[in-house]
Amino acid sequence: MIVRESTSSDVVVVGAGMVAHRFVESLLRGAGAVPTVTVIGEEARPPYDRVGLTSFFSGAGADDLALDAQTLRDDRVRFIGDDRVVGIDRVGRTVRTRSGAVHTYGTLVLATGSYAMRPAVDGADLPGCFVYRTLDDVAAIDAFVRHRATALGRPLRGTVIGGGLLGLEAAGALQGLDVDCTVVQSSDRLMSAQLDLAGGTILRRLIESKGIDVRTGTRTTRLDPDASGSVSALQFQDGTMHETDIVIFTVGVRPQDSLARLAQLAVHPSGGVLIDSRCRTADEDILAIGEVASYEGRSVGLVAPGYAMAEVAATRLLGGDATFPGYDDSAKLKLSGVDVASFGDAFATTPNALDVVYTDPVNGVYKKLVLSDDAKTLLGGILVGDASAYGSLRPLVGAALGADPAAYLMPEGGTSVPDSELPAEAVVCSCSNVTAGRIREAVHTEGCTDAAAVKACTKAGATCGSCIFAVKKIVGQELTKLGQATSDALCEHFSMSRRQLFDAVRVSELTTFSAIIDRFGTGRGCDICKPALASILSVLVGAHVLDGENAALQDTNDHVMANMQKDGTYSVVPRMPGGEVTPAGLIAIGNIAETYGLYTKITGGQRIDMFGARLEQLPQIWQRLVDAGFESGQAYGKALRTVKSCVGSTWCRYGVLDAVGMAVRLELRYRGLRAPHKLKVGVSGCARECAEARSKDVGVIATETGWNMYVGGNGGFSPRHAELLAADLDDEGLIRAIDRFFMYYIRTADRLQRTAGWCAELHGGLDGLREVIFDDSLGICDDLDAAMSVHVDRYEDEWAATLRDPVKLRRFESFVNATDTPDPSLAYVPERGQVRPATTEERSDASVLIAGTTLEVRR
To answer: Are the beta carbons of 13 and 24 closer than 8 angstroms?
Structure first.
């Protein structure tokens, strides 16, 4: 045994996690004399970011996750790792460690955190069973998966027991290791601590759309080993068995309070050292902070309350006045492609609280705001599928909302959110308890000119990062007041705008997200920059949407190349250029829809949409469509959707040019072209405008002397007519102009900016755009032409390529049911000769219910 040197310090901190690190950081930032501090950690490594633990599976190492090393290198701080405190002498004010060292304290701070629980069932300790708590845990999971997959010669089957925040992150990590994953949750919904039933239902569909199976209302009663002794199966409470090769338990944590119990400190019956609002325990010389502490009968496994306790404890030790305000249970899921947030009184427990709800099951979106009984004060909320408003809403909890709640709930382009300033006391960063006033102070008195500087100065956004957009907004407002330019950075991980990043990737010729962020960015990326770079790489590299590491960058629907619907099934949209389809094609689609029991509808873009396909059916359906000559219509992507046309001069007595022929030519040219937002084109064969071309991103209208080209139109919540860019173009001139318009837009537009907004913001307006496209004022037309030519030459149908690739098909094969038994949660009723999803009320009426998909409509 190595005997550690004994020390004497003003403050001894037991535990070296994130909260302990924040406490020491706060002490060192304080004014006046700073006490000497000894930090004793059980792990051999210095403090690291447990919140970002899942990033280990995307390449982040211990150094990437390490917290600011300068804090523990301060002359006033002594860090002792790989040792554990085993006893406290409260009378002698000493602690004794496993190595035999004795450390004397003036004040003792318990920051021992919590430990991951395992269910009390047989087999929970079998090889192949893990918890998800430390860097050692995730490293062991990674090593086991790689070794076990090699030994078995196949991808593994994994099970995560526990469907909360951590469980879903663990499932995403397993999937990233090519493990077919199932999440088992004992309650009736995922993230039951944060979401109501409606939000949990939408979240389940989003998770399943990523290829992760979900079982709710399910308890595990036993785990069985295989011949080698490793876990191989679970038994559920209903007696069914589930085969698995690896199990991760994320069933909760318990306060690591055994040291306090040995020292006879007061401990809550359910765990946790009892503290008051000053973070003091029953012993005035001992404080407890973080997950080990119990305040008003609660211990919470979130970092934000721990940070708040750390600040209070440090302030008190330095002679200041601070009290712990209570728990902020706000939480945001960190899983690529799945946006979830919950904050404040999300379950409306406040008397007479009002709910304002927006739900869009088709697009997997559920948003709820909880308001006071006068509908003025925001109390809390739930955001699923689109949590973009989280940064704006969470700081307003307890304050007047200041607008129609619909402004925060409706999709982009609906009722506008007020651009008013947050109150100074509004907490913007709940992790570090940073207010809007503190951020403004950092800008005005400490010279911070961007979100990164504010983060370094105040720690706002340094932990989970969910508040970074609110921070950027406040910084921008304050810089505008000072007359300074504001940043147009894509996100906190890239200081460049999307336009600058596009050029950087093009010039550097980098082809992967990891290489790009290593060279041009920082950190591990987010749900802003990842899809944006996926779009950029699709244009510059042209790789398949599911190839390599870039597959993980895609938005939810792109992961399976289909649009998820309200009941968790998918729609299938084959391309029909210009709305033209042969009788044989119609018969093929009809046969497919009949075979799989799909609801069919003609879309506004002149295509046929087939609804109700299960995930495992998608490859089967697409194989038949491809065999019939169809290809993907890319209705799921930020790409060219449709080119709508009237019948034109071919048949119509009013048509002056061949609208259908031009529409087909344009659609085949721009198919697969990914962009900052979706693209729509319309072609009308005369001025009667039957194709509604002026409501499209590009509208083409025939005249007696050529084609008139309109740009910047769109429908939606903020409809806008396209404006005339050029008149009387011949066929080749029209196509050349559209080539340049699209490619210039793709290279220079902001993330998710429609052509309407882009045109409105262009320097010089439409006149400036004409100079670029027709006069080559920027000298880039040859480059734009060449780029479009490359796109056209390398186009390949995404679904046809997927059907030829066994690796890509595994995304769908893992869900094939050998008996072809439909999911029992799918229920349909007949309507107008087809079927549609049953409502909640209809599900209870057995006389009209059709369970699962069906090939025959009951009449």
So the answer is: yes
Phi/psi for 232 (5° steps) reads -135, -15
Q: What is the pLDDT of residue 263?
A: 95
> Cβ–Cβ contacts within 10 Å for residue 425, how many?
12
Query: What's the distance, Cα to Cα, between the start and end of the chain in Å?
Result: 81
H helical segments located in 115-179: 135-152, 165-176
The DSSP code for 280 is: B
State how far the Cα of 280 lies from the Cα of 260, in Å rounded to an integer: 13
| Longest Cα–Cα distance in the chain | 102
Report d(CA 561, CA 624) in Å as an integer: 16
Q: Which two tokens stand for residue 494?
A: 């890239």
> Among the listed ranges 63-72, 688-697, 738-747, which one has the minimum average pLDDT value?
63-72
- Band (465; pLDDT cuts 50, 70, 90): low
Average pLDDT value for residue range 146-169: 93
Band of pLDDT at residue 828, cut at 50, 70 and 90: confident
Residues in the chain: 859
With CA atoms as reference, report the closest residue to 554 among 316, 256, 735, 798. Answer: 798
Structure token pair of residue 441: 């102070």
Q: 3-state class of 28 per DSSP?
A: helix
Question: What mean pLDDT, rounded, does the chain reach?
Answer: 87
Residue 464 has pLDDT above 70, yes or no: no
DSSP 455-473: HHHH-TTSSS-TTHHHHHH
With a cut of 80, say whether residue 666 has pLDDT above it.
Answer: yes
Q: What is the pLDDT of residue 102?
A: 94
d(CA 322, CA 316): 6
Tokens of 62: 């211990």
Cβ atoms of 450 and 458 closer than 8 Å: no
Q: What's 553's DSSP letter?
A: G
Beta strand ranges found along 400-477 (DSSP E): 427-429, 434-435
DSSP E strands: which ranges in 451-539? none
The token pair that represents 179 in the structure block: 């493990």
Angle at 555 between CA 606 and CA 175, to 5 degrees: 130
Phi-psi region of 204 (alpha: psi -120 to 50; beta: other; left: phi over 0): alpha
Q: Are 350 and 397 in contact (CB under 8 A)?
A: no
Q: What is the pLDDT of residues 187-203, one digit of tens each?
A: 999 999 999 999 999 99
d(CA 566, CA 612): 10
Q: What is the 3-state secondary structure (H, E, C) of 765-806?
A: HHHHHHHHHHCCCCCCHHHHHHHHHHHHHHCCCHHHHHHCCH
> 492, 456, 500: which is closest to 472 by C-alpha?
492
Report the helix count and the strand count for the chain, using DSSP H and E: 26, 38
pTM, entire model: 0.59
Of 479, 199, 235, the closest CA to residue 346 belongs to 199
858: Cβ contacts below 8 Å, ≥ 6 apart: 830, 850
